[in-house]
Write a structure and sequence with these properties.
Strand 12, helix 17 and strand 13 form a beta-alpha-beta unit. The chain is built from 19 helices and 15 strands. About 50% of the residues are buried. The protein is of the alpha/beta class and about 450 residues long. It folds into 3 domains: about 160 residues, NadA-like (Rossmann fold), CATH 3.40.50; about 140 residues, Rossmann fold, CATH 3.40.50.10800; about 80 residues, Rossmann fold (3-Layer(aba) Sandwich). Helix 1 packs across helix 18 and helix 16 runs parallel beside helix 17. The structure holds iron/sulfur cluster. The site of iron/sulfur cluster has 12 residues, from helix 7.
């Protein structure tokens, strides 16, 4: 069944910390923390254990004080894929846990919130900042938390190729930018008359773009692009996948033989896919899906997985879709989930409380098939000391500028450094990026109302 969860997700409830069960988060080495955050990390690392009974009183000291200080103006956000128990911690402090679509809308839809602190990867915080009101500020607890898929589609990689495509096809080319892109690429989509999409509404956005009769450049995830084309019955021979950005970055021209099929293939293409991918989802293989199905498990996967995996699965959809399936599964159901490892672990815990068995697609107990279910390691760089430190530094008026997220920032995830636009450039970028986000919202909401 295709996913139907196109409406903004509401934060799930029911995620609770189990007493006595350690908060599962890999401790980062001390030198991974910004100088301002080290005192918090030192305190955290010195705690005798990671059990909620130990960590919560320590965390409360900082989070509760910040909540008292900011009152209703403070909003905490986290993504479903956050490692360890950060999602549960954020829920405990009345924050919102959601997928990237619902997160992006949080500032715009909650104008009374003035200080927004996100535990997730950078592009998610930037999407919040693009749609935020002028008097709202957005902060990320760790600026080194980047999405590897987005890191293979930086503006300096995509722009030179997009420029060549625009030169060749002019107004016939339109860009669809997956939410997992920087604001600079969302602005590119806006400038070309395109839109942003998420995994829950990519089929709606690409369908909308097709109806315009224009060639589509889909950035950055080749798998989501291919799966979306498949779902819309697009002729797969009319897809061109651009070279692996890890190997070629942007140092090629359209006609130099780097692109398979060259300019003839591009001319005939209905959709051109940027070559990026998510390593968390590309470990999945169709044999894994069949292994579980032969044992009467129902397999659900995220569409960032390869096409053959999605075709073999019993259902595919966004994190919101997967979570809803878990929550609605009847007692005795056996579900296999093919997506990020921390999400599956949280789903397994919730399912167990209701008699639903849940396993990770890659956790096959057989030699030669087993593959460690992979978590989003970069997102997990937002850990309890980062949350405590960010809130305490904000309360004291000493938050580092590096943690402030402004639309158009380009981040080097190794150092956390930002290349920041000046005010005029940022205003222009926001205009274009907002347009592409607003088009997505309009397309999605129109579909959910059935018009
Ligand atoms: S799971 Fe993959 S696509 Fe999602 S944020 Fe992590 S690296 Fe990016």
């Amino acid at each position: 069944m295709p996913p139907t969860d196109t409406a903004p997700g509401t934060p799930p409830s029911g995620l609770t910390l189990d007493p006595g069960v350690p908060i599962c988060q890999t401790d980062l080495p001390l030198d991974w923390y910004q100088e301002e955050f080290r005192p918090y990390a030192e305190e955290y690392l010195a705690l005798p254990d990671r059990k909620p009974e130990t960590v919560l009183p320590w965390l409360d000291r900082y989070v509760r004080r910040a909540q008292d200080h900011f009152g209703d103006e403070l909003l905490l956000l986290a993504h479903f894929y956050m490692g360890g128990e950060i999602v549960k911690l954020v829920e405990r402090y009345e924050g919102a846990v959601a997928d990237s679509y619902a997160l992006a809308l949080q500032a715009a839809r909650n104008p009374e919130k003035k200080v927004i602190v996100e535990s997730a990867v950078h592009f998610m915080a930037e999407a919040v900042a693009i749609l935020a009101h002028e008097d709202q500020s957005v902060w990320i607890t760790n600026p080194k938390a980047g999405c590897t898929m987005e890191m293979l589609a930086k503006d300096f990689m995509v722009y030179p190729i997009a420029d060549q495509l625009i030169e060749r096809y002019g107004d016939d080319l339109l860009v669809v930018a997956y939410m997992n892109t920087s604001g600079r690429l969302k602005a590119l989509a806006g400038r070309t008359g395109g839109a942003v999409c998420t995994s829950s509404n990519a089929h709606l956005v690409v369908d909308w773009a097709r109806a315009k009769g224009r060639k589509i450049l889909f950035v950055p995830d080749q798998h989501l692009g291919r799966n979306t084309a498949d779902r819309l019955d697009m002729d797969q021979s009319k897809l061109v996948t651009l070279p692996d950005p890890q190997v070629f970055a942007a140092n090629y021209t359209l006609g130099d033989g780097t692109i398979e099929g060259g300019t003839d293939a591009l001319d005939a293409a209905e959709m051109i896919l940027w070559g990026s991918y998510c390593g968390v989802h590309t470990i999945f293989q169709p044999e894994m899906v069949r292994w579980w199905q032969e044992r009467d498990w129902r397999v659900l996967v995220h569409p960032e997985s390869p096409l053959e995996v999605v075709r073999a699965a019993d259902g595919q959809g966004s994190t919101n879709y997967l979570w809803t399936e878990v929550m609605n599964a009847p007692r005795g159901a056996k579900l296999v989930i093919g997506t990020e490892g921390h999400f599956v672990r949280n789903a397994r815990n919730e399912g167990a409380k209701r008699g639903v068995e849940i396993v990770h697609l890659a956790d096959i107990p057989e030699e030669g098939m087993a593959s460690a279910g992979c978590g989003c390691a970069t997102m997990s760089r937002n850990d309890p000391p980062h949350l405590a430190g960010m809130l305490d530094l904000l309360r004291r008026g000493e938050a580092p500028d590096l943690n402030r997220v402004l639309a158009g920032d380009s981040v080097d995830e190794l150092s956390g450094a930002r290349d920041r636009l000046d005010g005029a450039e940022r205003a222009e970028l926001i205009g274009h990026a907002k347009l592409s986000l607003e088009r997505m919202i309009e397309i999605t909401e129109r579909a959910s109302k059935g018009s």
